[in-house]
Amino acid sequence: MPRLFTEAKKRLREAASHMSVDPDVMEKLKYPKETLSASLLVRMDDGSRRCFKAWRCRYDDTRGPTKGGIRFHTNVRLEEIMTLAFWMTFKCAVANLPFGGAKGGVAVNASKLSKSELERLSRAYVKAFHSFIGPDRDIPAPDMYTNSMVMGWMEDEYSAIVDHPSPAVITGKPLELGGSEGRTDATGRGGYLVIRHLEKDFEIEPDKTSIIIQGFGNAGYNFACLMHADGYKIVGISDSRLAIYDTEGMDPHSVHNYKMKNGTLSGAPSNGTLKEMTNQELLIEACDILIPAALENQITADNASKIQARIVCELANGPVTPAADKILCENGTIVIPDILANSGGVIVSYFEWVQNKAGYYWSLAEVHSKLKERIEPEARTIWKISLEKNVDMRTAAYIHALERLSKAVTAHGTKAYFSS
């Protein structure tokens, strides 16, 4: 089995070692329920046709329809899609959503496509996978290099195929097409709510706490703005090309506006002397809280011992490897795991699905309130488990999720039941 997927399942085995789990549960969670691959043949603007490899994986649907994003990225491969679907299974269980986990992707450099080519690719994906997805079977959402416009095209294509409007088939849509208020900043807001809820337990104070954010996309930017507004000092920011660092801090709004105008972080406004460096160099700069909000496997055994942050909050999926986890734990670093820290996105996606099903839509204030009500108790429970069992927060989160998954699986009967 590919290494990324194998490494991910170590989290499951570690959690299981701290609790009593029926062997049937572990057997059911060993592999994805189903995966589908396809070749998408797309007509390009110059009249030629290109073939793109695409995948969708439904990992487990014991607790309900599967849920997970679709990413367009050059390095997308089946191993990654399976791993992300595995993580989504546990993320949905952590958030106590009536969903299982899924993921999809296309191996493509989306930035090289015209808008028309991007639309044709998006619609081709739905044509290939329309029988695999559905509002009561598998509900996609945006992910890396996909957005609300792409989701709108996909929902429109699916509705045309089934011959009736079906907004609940996909979340992350534009508001005008059945999207939810609060979806844009949901991932960053979820991480923000977790830290603010546990800040006394972490012994941090906003005006005395510095933050580095690796990855200034949607999640990283919205998280930065929320924390900055509450008095936290943003000392480091990076995108895929450059990192900037200033111990005196910077205003994320000003940095974002500067980048939108100039296309780069170089020379962005800050409060002191701005240093420019690489992403990897930024990770090991001095700060109190480090936010990996970019790609997986950013903190590894090679650089974990150099991390100066006392808290690492994973807004990205899988940015810390298992080997790095061990080093960080030994050094006393608190890691808020991805399946909790970035669960705000899937929680508000669930809210969108519920609103689509009901045909009744909530205000922004209602969405924010419901997100807070859902994510804070889960953060508190995970922190409590970590203290009671003397384990790191990631293991505690997997214990919490596995407990829910285990109850769902055993409700169908196990060896102990059928042999009695």
What does this structure look like?
The chain has 420 residues and is an alpha/beta fold. The chain folds into two domains: 32-176, 3-Layer(aba) Sandwich (Rossmann fold), CATH 3.40.50.10860; 180-420, Rossmann fold (3-Layer(aba) Sandwich), CATH 3.40.50. It contains 15 helices and twelve strands. The protein has helices at residues 3-16, 23-28, 78-94, 115-129, 148-162, 186-202, 218-229, 252-262, 279-283, 322-330, 338-341, 344-358, 364-389, 393-410, 415-418, and strands at residues 34-43, 49-60, 66-73, 100-107, 138-142, 210-214, 233-238, 243-245, 275-277, 289-292, 311-313, 334-336. Strands 9-8-7-6-10-11-12 form a seven-stranded mixed β-sheet, with helices on both faces. Helix 13 packs across helix 14. The protein is globular, with a radius of gyration of 21 Å. The model has no long low-confidence stretch (mean pLDDT 95).
Structure classification: alpha/beta
Return the CATH topology of the largest domain: Rossmann fold
Radius of gyration: 21 Å
Can you tell me the CATH class of the largest domain?
Alpha Beta
| Content of β-strand | 15-25%
Count of folded domains: 2
Average pLDDT, all residues: 95
Q: Which range best describes the helical content: under 10%, 10-25%, 25-40%, 40-55%, 55-70% or over 70%?
A: 40-55%
CATH architecture of the largest domain: 3-Layer(aba) Sandwich
The CATH homology group name of the largest domain: NAD(P)-binding Rossmann-like Domain
Report strand order across the widest sheet: 9-8-7-6-10-11-12
* CA-CA gap between termini: 35 Å
Largest sheet: 7 strands, mixed
Query: What's the overall geometry?
Result: globular
Number of helix segments? 15
Q: Helix-strand pattern, N to C?
A: HHEEEHEHEHHEHEEHEHEEHEHHHHH
- Number of E-state strands: 12
Sequence stretches where pLDDT stays below 50 over 5 or more residues: none
